[in-house]
């Protein structure tokens, strides 16, 4: 659970886990960190209520293999669209895999409509809270190249 | 008798032997918010109303609120700062009064603008605290939250000079919602109550959130009342119980049973007010009708319950007392003591990712369903607590602990002989 900086000498991915600016929930972040660490990845957890600027500067500084955005307060859809635009605007983050998941609207799972809009906005994966979303997320992870960073 | 204040309303209900129930309702649209308050007022149970604010307002991003309103996007609560006071006054007109107080619930580490807005709208009750709305919910340094909450208390307390009776509730009994052992929850609630009193509040409430085990919870509420009686005898205070704030049962029967157990716990332990949860909790933000149904279920369960009953002492009071005394010894100023206590790890909330939180404590649900420390870090509990001696919690163990209550109540709901 420490927040040590990733070292890229070992196999496994360097992953940034983050909430969004208005979202104060933490258990989703704590759980994701443990799951990812047990799968052999290294995690920097930015915690709750991460402002856009912090997410962008930390991702640019750390150069992770993957960014995992998790939000459950119902504002996630709108905030995630805003943040992915900021991330993709940075040349060094233009191709970084970035995924989003959780409860992204206030009205329950938004199905294909929200997922499509978020994918078009620049996310590589959308995992809305529903049975099987962690399994889908793990299979997404399996498809990412591991330990190829210079 | 009620004196027209929030604390007075709760005290009057308690004197009649009635539990006050309260929803956590917040709606972005003023007309819908008003309709929600009206439905609570007309629910036919002793209730107070709630304006729960949206989470852009919580973090002070009022520009995001205005953009959302302009675009017609949904907000997850009522944006009291972005609306002019006249809008909120119109929401409350004819509803808010001595027989139906309304409390603002928000979650902000720096709530000065929220306090200004609620006072401008004619309201006088809110909640939170310099630790309870800083550590779990923000990235604001604790020292900054302490300053912000001192200012907010002074703003609220200023009402007393104009004949008002402001009320402030500590959210300290709910750190992280779950997996924080009761001794620390009780201690933080008492310490925030002391902070409020130091900054001029004469009417406060102390919170405790239902956790994983009814006997342990009863012991905790008794400990909270005992420490409040010792430390806050010169102010008006009551205990508010929150229905379970962690991962909630997904079945209707499981969710209802958990709410009923919370109402029974409140009556058994002498808590005067209960924040309810609804059958929709696990799935989405509840509707007004679901909130009203929850208020009625809780109120009926409370009316059937009996006060009193023996509670075994497993050391919650001793734990809470040790933490409170160690923190107060750090400075005669409660705010300074809180900052130093977090720095030294005397207050260290398990699993909390806040940059100032030491992060050296852990807790688990043990095989009997009680919440226990597995690591105490630098908490001043040496000799009082036996830790489980486990190494780090695995993801599967964490998930098992986090979902213990949900699983217990949902499994029982699916079993016709069970507690659901």
UniProtKB/TrEMBL annotation, chain A:
Residues 12-150 form the B12-binding domain. Pfam families: B12-binding. InterPro entries: Cobalamin-bd (IPR006158), Cobalamin-bd_sf (IPR036724). CDD domains: B12-binding_like. Gene3D superfamilies: Cobalamin-binding domain. It comes from the Bacteria. This is Cobalamin B12-binding domain-containing protein. The lineage of its organism: Bacteria, Bacillati, Actinomycetota, Actinomycetes, Pseudonocardiales.
From TrEMBL, chain B:
Gene3D superfamilies: Methylmalonyl-CoA mutase (3.20.20.240). Keywords: Cobalamin, Cobalt, Isomerase. The keyword Isomerase applies. Pfam families: Met_asp_mut_E. This is Methylaspartate mutase.
